[in-house]
Design goal:
Elements lengths: L1 H26 L1 E21 L2 E2 L8 E14 L3 E8 L5 E8 L8 E7 L2 E3 L12 E7 L13 E8 L4 E9 L7 E4 L7 E6 L14 E4 L4 E12 L2 E9 L5
Parallel strand pairs: 1-6, 8-14
Antiparallel strand pairs: 1-2, 1-3, 1-4, 4-5, 6-7, 8-11, 9-10, 9-12, 12-13, 14-15
Protein name: DUF4397 domain-containing protein
Organism: Flavobacterium microcysteis
Keywords: Signal
Length: 246
């Protein structure tokens, strides 16, 4: 009888130790899931996870709309690397280091790849009624040449005569601004976006007034603003329209 009791106690201790070991192993790992949504044109891109190409619909490179989901188990002491590469040239466009501790930051990744510009965002063409003009703006390199530490700027869209068409309180680096719509008025007349510090009428940089000439088209206009230097002077261009690719 005593032997049976000792055996049962030993079995319980062994079971408890195994459970503790299992729980310890589980605590050192966790599942990770990364949803990727992007667009690339005209060049194809390739995703590489820890150096290995990611297949999407059995293809190792892809263009146009790109969607996939990575699912994996991550250990506390390991790092996983996700890279986006231009498949035509081979250069790296972006990279992400995913760990046990930061994986929640990478549940969703977005990108938009066009000639000469790579955006860590995803673009959806907004709906604009016939006869109307809609604008959204993105300013990914804000501060690159101006030295501004602002994360957003205010934009005021005007006709050539100064009449205000729309105001954009927050044009930022990572996401397109809120959609603003007005009635279309000309195929040839330009519109101008003036850029200020948020909530003020002060130019966002110390270079003086900043005015960007933009060509309006009927429907959606998704303008990417870019700081540039011309003859040593700061200028802002708005000649990339993402809507042309969607």
């Amino acid at each position: 009888m005593k032997k049976a009791i000792v055996f049962i106690i030993g079995l319980l201790i062994l079971t408890a130790c195994e459970a503790e070991l299992t729980n310890s192993i589980d605590a050192a790992q966790k599942p990770a899931r990364v949803k990727i949504k992007g667009y690339s044109s005209p060049d194809a891109v390739q995703l590489r996870f820890n150096g290995e190409p990611v297949l999407i619909n059995q293809q190792g490179s892809y263009r146009g709309n790109i969607e996939t989901t990575l699912e994996f188990v991550i250990d506390k002491d390991e790092k996983n690397y996700l890279g986006i590469y231009n498949n035509e040239i081979g250069n790296e466009l972006a990279n992400y280091e995913i760990t046990y501790y930061n994986s929640d930051q990478y549940k969703e990744l977005y990108f938009f790849n066009l000639p000469g510009i790579f955006l860590k965002t995803y673009a959806v063409k907004p709906t604009v009624n016939i006869g109307r003009v809609g604008f959204v703006f993105l300013f990914p390199n804000l501060g690159e040449f101006s030295g501004s530490e602002l994360q957003t700027v205010k934009g005021v869209l005007k006709r050539e005569n100064g009449a205000v068409l729309a105001e954009f309180p927050n044009i930022g680096k990572e996401n397109f601004s809120e959609l603003k719509i007005y009635s279309f008025f000309s195929n040839t007349a330009p519109v101008f976006l003036e850029l200020y510090k948020p909530g003020t009428t002060e130019p966002y940089a110390n270079s003086g007034p900043i005015r960007v000439q933009i060509i309006q088209t009927v429907g959606a206009n998704m303008i990417v603003l870019q700081e540039k230097l011309e003859n040593g002077n700061l200028v802002v261009k708005g000649d990339i329209d993402i809507a042309d690719y969607l």
